[in-house]
Amino acid sequence: MSLVGKKAPLFKAPAVLNGEEIVEQFSLEQYIGKQEVVFFFYPKDFTFVCPTEIIAFQDKLAEFEKRNVAVVGISTDTEETHLAWLSTPRDQGGIAGVTYPLVADVAKTIASNFGVLAGEYVADEEGNLAFEGTPIAYRGTFLIDKEGIVRHETINFFPLGRNIDEMIRLVDAWHHVEKFGEVCPAGWEEGKEAMKATKEGVSSYLANKS
């Protein structure tokens, strides 16, 4: 079930901050009323597609920050594994230099609540639990507004890496909607024409495009 238009699930969990500090009670609540958040799940530390995405977010971090948007990553690895990966040089498969928070969802409850866990626990007739599927997160990405409401979500299968520039475009689109009360048509980018959410607005926009 989609979370778009709903409150993002709340949680408290361990996280690594600034690539070096473990905190035990990290929460997205700290951003409510202050910043939007791009909250993204990735499958696993010390893997292959994941570091390309994590570093790509870091490379674009200044673009998010100048838009007053926080970036937070999360996987089902432990905080100690996060820290070890953050301490490993990039030429050795690590992600050294990443400064935004990485959350540890060891219990897999956060991934489950956000709808991105790639499987589920089931019980047999004797009440024994087993996991059906893969006990890690898909590549879920959520844009959460200042009120804690999810405004965008995408979920990719494991091999499909994300486009970080697309997330910046969506942030810009959301800011435009909030500021001007207009809607953003297909392929809209900052500085391009948007339109009023009326029949006349659509007709005028399409006429200008023809």
TrEMBL record:
<dbReference type="GO" id="GO:0005829">
    <property type="term" value="C:cytosol"/>
</dbReference>
<keyword id="KW-0560">Oxidoreductase</keyword>
<keyword id="KW-0963">Cytoplasm</keyword>
<dbReference type="InterPro" id="IPR036249">
    <property type="entry name" value="Thioredoxin-like_sf"/>
</dbReference>
<dbReference type="InterPro" id="IPR013766">
    <property type="entry name" value="Thioredoxin_domain"/>
</dbReference>
<dbReference type="InterPro" id="IPR000866">
    <property type="entry name" value="AhpC/TSA"/>
</dbReference>
<dbReference type="InterPro" id="IPR050217">
    <property type="entry name" value="Peroxiredoxin"/>
</dbReference>
<keyword id="KW-1015">Disulfide bond</keyword>
<feature type="domain" description="Thioredoxin">
    <location>
        <begin position="2"/>
        <end position="176"/>
    </location>
</feature>
<feature type="active site" description="Cysteine sulfenic acid (-SOH) intermediate; for peroxidase activity">
    <location>
        <position position="50"/>
    </location>
</feature>
<dbReference type="GO" id="GO:0008379">
    <property type="term" value="F:thioredoxin peroxidase activity"/>
</dbReference>
<dbReference type="GO" id="GO:0033554">
    <property type="term" value="P:cellular response to stress"/>
</dbReference>
<keyword id="KW-0676">Redox-active center</keyword>
<comment type="similarity">
    <text>Belongs to the peroxiredoxin family. AhpC/Prx1 subfamily.</text>
</comment>
<protein>
    <recommendedName>
        <fullName>Thioredoxin peroxidase</fullName>
    </recommendedName>
</protein>
<dbReference type="InterPro" id="IPR019479">
    <property type="entry name" value="Peroxiredoxin_C"/>
</dbReference>
<dbReference type="InterPro" id="IPR024706">
    <property type="entry name" value="Peroxiredoxin_AhpC-typ"/>
</dbReference>
<keyword id="KW-0575">Peroxidase</keyword>
<dbReference type="Pfam" id="PF10417">
    <property type="entry name" value="1-cysPrx_C"/>
</dbReference>
<dbReference type="GO" id="GO:0042744">
    <property type="term" value="P:hydrogen peroxide catabolic process"/>
</dbReference>
<dbReference type="GO" id="GO:0045454">
    <property type="term" value="P:cell redox homeostasis"/>
</dbReference>
<comment type="function">
    <text>Thiol-specific peroxidase that catalyzes the reduction of hydrogen peroxide and organic hydroperoxides to water and alcohols, respectively. Plays a role in cell protection against oxidative stress by detoxifying peroxides.</text>
</comment>
<dbReference type="Pfam" id="PF00578">
    <property type="entry name" value="AhpC-TSA"/>
</dbReference>
<dbReference type="GO" id="GO:0006979">
    <property type="term" value="P:response to oxidative stress"/>
</dbReference>
